[in-house]
Every structure is written in structure tokens, then in C-alpha cells.
Write a structure and sequence with these properties.
Layout lengths: L1 E12 L3 E12 L3 E5 L6 H8 L7 E6 L2 E2 L4 H10 E4 L11 H11 L5 H14 L15 H13 L5 E5 L7 H16 L3 E5 L3 H7 L2 E6 L2 E6 L1 H5 L3
Parallel strand pairs: 3-8, 3-9, 6-7, 7-8
Antiparallel strand pairs: 1-2, 1-4, 4-5, 9-10
Helix pairs in contact: 3-4, 3-5, 4-5, 5-6
The chain binds adenosine-5'-diphosphate (2 copies).
């Protein structure tokens, strides 16, 4: 049974910009999907619909057994299951790394501070950055900040992780440290959907590559079919 299921999903921006066209997509638990395609083809919109950062207008979208609609409770439930990492790290600059990680678990998840901090430290270890816990984001490199952002998403113990061009804002020498963390997550069985141009990553990690163009899924295949010449 799929953990994510798009059925004939359509979305428009404004009245006439048709950004997602008849999207049919089923994602099984543990799948690692890379979404690629030209800029403006709807990749970011597609994954933002999964945690309802964007709304679709037609078709059905189910995530972890819940149909996404205007039901606020359903959306809250889904957001706990879906972690997201953005191109810009979106960390709170006036909070320490540790405080960035404990904020949502304490105030959304109602976890006591001690437990939230313990969980945060575990996740910081997982991305190998626990020694930076008391620093502020801007004291860290871009690669370190992005690993903090990944740890922050993991603190809500999501079942699904979405990555929207997570290495595009990084200097080249920092890309690998972020991809390595993502590769480890994939190895631990996390269901992942990654919008990325990193085709080496796709080849190493994805079980499926989806190619989008003008709001449609125009191709899906295992990575070797995309990247290996016959
Ligand atoms: P991609 O991730 O493939 O670059 P996006 O999903 O970000 O594509 O955007 C698809 C198209 O929708 C682009 O042409 C973009 O300018 C447009 N778009 C994105 N967000 C909005 C918005 N909030 N309002 C109007 N148009 C948007
Ligand atoms: P991406 O890196 O995903 O391609 P964009 O540069 O297309 O992102 O968009 C950056 C932000 O601006 C997104 O939050 C998107 O929703 C918004 N946006 C993009 N195009 C438009 C638009 N034409 N009108 C309003 N908002 C837009």
C-alpha cells in the first residue's frame, strides 16, 4: 500500500497557470525518488503539495492514509509525518542550533524540554554536528547549516522526508557532506523524495527517477535506465 498517492492531481497558480497536470504517482514505503526536470516544470510545487505548503485543486492526494483537503486536523497530522528541507536552510538566526531543533517538538509536539533536547542531540549526532549545538546558525558553514536543517526535520520523527534542491545553495566543497547524510538516511529505510540536479546522488540512492516537464510527469524509470547508455 502506498504511503503517498496522487490521483489525477491538478493545480493552477492564479486562474490560468496550470502548474501540475494530471499527476498520477504512487510512492511505496521506503522508496527513494529523485525528481528532475527543467526549471519551472513544477518539481517544487509537486513536493510542496505533499505537506500542503501548496494546495491542489483537482484530484486526490493521500499521504499516510489521510486524504489532503481543507481539514486542518488532517493537515496537522500529515505535517508531523512529513519533514522538509529547503534550498535555503530556513533556520532561525536568533536561536542556537539546539533551540532550532527543540522549538517544534516542544511547542507543537508538547515534548518536555529535557526530552526535546535529548532527541535533538541524537539527531545532531546523526548528522555529525553535535559539537556545534550551542552555536548560532550564522557561525556555521552552509553545509553545516543544511545538516542542522536535516536534523531539525528529523526531530519530528517523520515517516517521509522531502528535499527541495538541498545542495543548490552550497559551495561545491560542502555538497558532499550533505549528500552523505542523505545517503545514510536512505540506507536507514527513510521514504525520501528529492528534487535535485545531483545525478551522482540519484544514481547511488534513488530507486526511481521522475522527470517532469511543463507540469507533467513525462518519464519514470530506475536511475540506470536514465543514465546508462544501452
Ligand atoms: P520547479 O521546482 O520545477 O523549478 P516550481 O514548482 O517552483 O518549478 O514552479 C513552477 C512554475 O510555477 C514556475 O513557472 C513558477 O514561476 C511558478 N510558480 C511557482 N510558485 C508560484 C506562485 N506562488 N504563484 C505563481 N506562480 C508560481
Ligand atoms: P524554485 O527554486 O523552486 O524554482 P522559484 O525561484 O520558482 O523556486 O520560486 C521561489 C519562491 O517564489 C517560491 O516560494 C515560489 O512559490 C514563489 N514564486 C515563484 N514564482 C512565482 C510567481 N510567478 N508568483 C508568485 N510567487 C512565485
Amino acid at each position: 500500500e502506498s504511503i503517498i498517492s496522487f490521483q489525477k492531481v491538478n493545480k493552477w497558480y492564479g486562474n490560468n497557470f496550470h502548474v501540475l497536470r494530471d499527476i498520477d504517482l504512487d510512492v511505496a514505503r521506503g522508496e527513494r525518488i529523485v525528481v528532475c526536470g527543467p526549471s519551472g516544470s513544477g518539481k517544487s510545487t509537486l513536493i510542496r503539495c505533499i505537506n500542503r505548503l501548496e494546495e491542489h485543486q483537482e484530484g486526490t492526494l493521500r499521504v499516510d492514509g489521510v486524504e489532503l483537503s481543507d481539514d486542518v486536523k488532517a493537515i496537522e497530522a500529515i505535517r508531523k509525518q512529513v519533514g522538509m528541507v529547503f534550498q535555503q536552510f530556513n533556520l532561525f538566526p536568533h536561536l542556537t542550533v539546539l533551540e532550532n531543533l527543540t522549538l517544534a517538538p516542544m511547542w507543537v509536539g508538547k515534548l518536555p524540554r529535557a526530552e526535546a533536547e535529548e532527541r535533538a542531540m541524537q539527531q545532531l549526532k546523526r548528522v555529525r554536528i553535535s559539537e556545534q549545538a550551542l552555536k548560532y546558525p550564522l557561525q556555521l558553514s552552509g553545509g553545516q547549516q543544511q545538516r542542522v536543517a536535516i536534523a531539525r526535520a528529523l526531530c519530528l520523527t517523520p515517516k517521509i522526508m522531502l528535499f527541495d534542491e538541498p545542495t543548490s545553495a552550497l559551495d561545491p566543497e560542502m555538497i558532499k557532506e550533505v549528500l552523505d547524510v542523505m545517503i545514510e538516511l536512505a540506507g536507514q529505510g527513510m521514504t525520501m523524495i528529492c528534487v535535485t540536479h545531483e545525478m551522482g546522488f540519484a544514481k547511488a540512492v534513488a530507486n526511481r527517477v521522475i522527470f517532469m516537464d511543463q507540469g507533467q510527469i513525462v518519464e519514470q524509470a530506475p536511475p540506470h535506465q536514465f543514465f546508462d547508455n544501452p
